[in-house]
Design goal:
17 helices, alpha/beta, 477 residues
């Protein structure tokens, strides 16, 4: 890890180009992280090109070094939230594939490369999210239900929303691998620069990597090495059909911050070690936590202002702004040439530049900031007219959290803060600006109204369709 302070300015440090092992050159070090857009619609949940024209054009013209799409689910039966884009089994056929090509063109129109994040929620897929029968359980490496809160009311709500997942069979695992590989191929054929495998935040791949959710005793679990086997298989099989210069990235947890029995930082470090030494991965993104943890800063960062003035870079003191800096420092001890992206907690230009200058990471991930201030690289962070003292992102304060605390069911209340960002993503997709002042009560009420309106509209359309308004066209063949 670097010790001496660079003589470069903060802007010069984050504006440096970076060439990945695959040969793809990123124009600077700022990465738009994946966030779920929640804009796709049933029945196929294809890329909503009209909405993405509004949303991704803003990011494409904002001077990021790399754009990572929001989550794309690989199995249409298992979504993490209504509105996820899905790479279904007909995605390479028309009329579906043209939507993928248009999305790739929109996202990269400004010259910034874009890669697709491929995900599977596993046991985190709620009832009603995805095209599956009501009695079909979500899947998991082992049958380990999600636990959120205590008491009979929380348990009853969780049972209704998530239920107890079914342990995956070998056939299930093989099918999931095939789905991930198809997703990588669709991204390649559509013209994206590559893909990222989502192995963090309690999704299926991270469920295999954690001893808490993976209690198997076969080739896919039982030891740290075997828990890594699915990820190894995915990296190997995707790289076989998507050779370089296609970019292949993996997003991993530093730890899942469970009270007991979860993924430790030591095991997480060994997972990163394999990725940076296997010769097939072009960069690794570091994050942390899952829906059940209570200590990850990423999942407890909605209530207080982060900074009101940017810190100054110092020869003697590192800024350490990002949430997972300590783990990233351990990763740098591996002395690998594979770049590390650190995501979560960055606010200031100087904090980002300090992380790069210190060797903690090579890429800076911006997620929630990219929703509230989609043009922040061009408008502020890379703008020489903005002094370092004022070059920092707006704090992610979600107003009205008292409302969430009133809800006794934790599976509902704990998810309301993130709805603030989904709400603003939908605003961007509809051609509006983000609203940093939107409160949780307002968002809940707005959701109720929209649900009522859409329900009435659908009912009205069905009534109209039942009337013989089109003469001969209404007759049965």
């Amino acid at each position: 890890m670097a010790e001496a302070r660079s003589r470069q300015t903060a802007i010069e440090l984050i504006a440096q180009p970076l060439t990945l092992p695959c040969g793809l050159t990123l124009p600077n070090r700022l990465v738009k992280c994946p966030m779920q857009e929640t804009l796709a619609v049933a029945p196929f949940f294809d890329p909503p090109v009209d909405k993405f024209e509004n949303l991704y054009t803003q990011w494409a013209n904002a001077d990021y070094g790399l754009i990572i799409t929001g989550q794309v689910q690989i199995d249409i039966r298992f979504l993490s939230i209504k509105g996820d884009v899905v790479c279904h089994d007909k995605a390479l056929e028309e009329p579906y594939f043209s939507k993928w090509r248009k999305w790739a063109a929109i996202a990269q129109a400004g010259g910034t490369p874009c890669i697709v994040q491929l995900a599977h929620p596993g046991r985190m897929s709620p009832a009603g999210a995805g095209n599956r029968p009501a009695d079909m359980a979500a899947i998991c490496p082992s049958s380990v239900p999600v636990k959120l809160g205590e008491g009979w009311l929380n348990k009853m709500a969780l049972d209704k929303v998530l239920g107890t997942p079914r342990e995956m069979t070998i056939e299930d695992i093989d099918a999931a691998v095939a789905d991930w590989v198809r997703g990588a191929r669709v991204a390649k054929e559509a013209g994206f620069a590559g893909c990222q495998l989502h192995g963090a935040h309690g999704f299926l791949l991270s469920q295999f990597l954690s001893p808490y959710t993976n209690r198997r005793r076969d080739n896919y679990g039982g030891t740290p090495e075997k828990r890594l086997f699915l990820l190894k298989r995915l990296v190997t099989e995707i790289r076989a059909i998507c050779p370089r210069p296609y970019c292949l990235s993996v997003k991993l947890n530093s730890a899942d911050y469970m009270a007991q029995g979860g993924l430790s930082q030591d095991e997480g470090l060994e997972q990163v070690r394999w990725l940076v030494e296997c010769g097939m991965v072009d960069f690794v993104e570091i994050s942390g936590g899952n829906a059940e943890n209570k200590t990850s800063k990423l999942h407890n960062s909605f209530g207080t202002a982060s900074i009101d003035k940017a810190p100054k870079m110092s020869d003697s003191t590192r800024i350490r702004e990002a949430y997972f800096t300590e783990f990233a420092e351990r990763v740098q001890g591996l002395n690998s040439e594979v770049p590390i992206q650190l995501s979560g907690g960055f606010r200031s230009r100087t904090g980002m530049a300090d992380a790069i200058d210190s060797g903690v990471c090579s890429l800076i991930g911006l997620g929630r900031t990219a929703v509230l201030q989609p043009d922040i690289p061009r408008a502020l962070l890379l703008n020489p007219a903005a002094e370092d003292d004022v070059a920092f992102a707006t704090s992610h304060i979600v107003k009205g959290q008292w409302f969430a605390h009133l809800i006794p069911v934790k599976v509902v209340g704990s998810s309301l803060a993130i709805q603030f960002f989904y709400h603003n993503m939908r605003r961007l997709g509809n051609g509006m600006k983000s609203d940093p002042d939107a409160s949780i009560p307002f968002i809940v009420w707005n959701g109720i109204v929209e649900t009522f309106r859409s329900g009435l509209l659908q009912s009205f359309e069905r009534i109209l369709q039942s009337f013989p308004l089109h003469g001969e066209d209404t007759k049965a063949d």
